[in-house]
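Posting this for the archive.
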Amino acid sequence: MARTFRASKWQILTKIVIPANLSTFINSLKVNIGLSLVGVISGEFLVSKAGLGYLIVYGGQVFKLDLVMTSVIILGIVAGVMYAAVLVLEKFILHSKKFR
């Protein structure tokens, strides 16, 4: 319909496609926050000399459960903060007057 009114490709993208897919994009961000942290930590398991993944592996090797659990709790807190940031972004974007 936009093409019949001679809308350009840029207008179709910015006025129809992006606003229609914002909720899908934000929901994908919510899911992929945890997955990105899993990827980072698994990379640190293999080749790192520092970081939370290294601390988890090192703590497991020297039987320091406190080091392992502290690293896991920090990961949980970071994931929670990142998820909350995406929720704030969602409220800001989806509840603005521009996308109603």
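The helical segments are 9-47, 52-61, 65-94. The chain has three helices and no strands.
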